[in-house]
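Handout, tutorial session.
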Amino acid sequence: MSELTHINASGDAHMVDVSGKAETVREARAEAFVEMAAQTLAMIINGNHHKGDVFATARIAGIQAAKKTWDLIPLCHPLLLTKVEVSLEAQPEHNRVRIESRCRLSGKTGVEMEALTAASVAALTIYDMCKAVQKDMVIGPIRLLEKSGGKSGDFKADSHAESKVKI
């Protein structure tokens, strides 16, 4: 078995030992979407939501989630992130919100899970804040857009992949 696996020699799940890996600058970006009714999106855009600024709350939730990924996803390493950004964009032409997260650090393991967690939790926060108005919102797709740094090399998602996914 490979040295960098979540399965040990006994076949049990374990946290990968990254102590022998070199520290490099690592960065990852992820995106998520929340599809909703035009009226719900308009309420968010116009700032008419009785719970306050939906985008600001989702942004903070995404940042906090990225910092706690190790506490949410089994076998993830606790990381000292040096940068977490969460941006939200209303896309009225599609009745949805697009969320993009970016995580960065200098370390021995990547930040893909942190970026995906940030985007996911921001999407869930939008749902939570708006569920009293609309329960049938759809979250997804959620995907890794790109990652750089580390032994496994760089990754960049097909830029046309999102347009192929219908939500």
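The second record follows below. Compare its token runs with those of the first.
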Amino acid sequence: MPPTSDWTPEDLLAYDREHVWHPYAPMPATAPIHSVASARGVTLTLADGTELVDGMSSWWAAIHGYNHPVLNEAITGQLGRMAHVMFGGLTHEPAVELARTLVDIAPAGITKVFFADSGSVAVEVAIKMALQFWRNQGLNRPRLLTVRGGYHGDTFGDMAVCDPVNGMHQLFTDVLPTHVFAPEPPAGPDEDYVHSLGKLVAEHAHELAGIIVEPVVQGAGGMRFYDPSHLRALRALADEHGLLLILDEIATGFGRSGAFWGADHAGVLPDIMCVGKALTGGYLTMAATLTTDRVAAGISAGSAPLMHGPTFMANPLAAAVAKASLDLLAARDWRSEVGGIETALREGLDGVESLPGVAEVRIMGAIGVIETSIDIDQQKVQNAVMAHGVWLRPFRNLIYTMPPYISSPDDLTRITTAMRAAARTLG
């Protein structure tokens, strides 16, 4: 592939290090950054020619892999018609088609779609919806109930419902709204936990607009899985006290956990739900907040509409590729693909729990997690997995993978071998 500029790889990385801020990193960067020249299938090709199997799906988004011809065609075809147009007072076919698809595949009762331009914004909109729903009824319910161990995004409303103690946003605790936090949901059924949830909700119900959780899988807050019975308990408590249930399906939606929606494991229906990440197959940033007729009517009944409108709301390029991605997912046997990944992860990580420094191994659907008993040396672990031709992004005490659904058995063997090698660096 010919170079796209006159940068040498060394010059590019040097400039990046001094001037380009990367996620969750200092400036200037203190850890090595790797320049990607191209990506195809599940493979990232670095500027020096190194090829790495991407075990992260680019932060869980590229479920179909990279450079997919169907998705390429969707985005280039739309590009020839219209790259963008404001959504205020205008609409377009890609947005309407995508909205119809989302309503068709959403849990029963979900009928309204608000397009956002990132997962964090989708959660902000969900919070705003819940608060405004009650304000329009003349009730001041300024707080939400959630659980410890959660992560919902990096903007201010989102940070306030992330774990306030063990999450990544403790620095801002004193300037964030104060919400109500229940303990982390247990991995198995626990009647005492459900009882304590009931007491906590009852105590605060008069001030709660709703309950917000990630269904069954807690993502960036700790990659924990919890028993579906606890999600059913939260739905029942929301109904008992007339609260809205917000489900953050940004990481769990579109099959990642083995069910299409995380909520499907519990058989519950949300009042508001957020989707993102895999929505566009990893091509462009787009998310959505979905809700019911009842919630939409309650919000719209007041003197002010929902005051939110991102500049790139319902971007036609993103909408077109999202629709193509969802159609592609529907046409694939994604359940078998995710089930095959789960089996491969279980087999490939079998016995890792016995290694020194490993606290637990957890697997659900296309998610594999090695939790360590100490914080890891991120660079040491990164080097170990790259030496095996794999790209992972470990953090804190977690070495984990969320591979693309198209990953082959050989790809998955390489990923689990790399994870084993990473775990051995702990001892």
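Points raised in discussion: Residues 114 and 289 are 5 Å apart (CA to CA).
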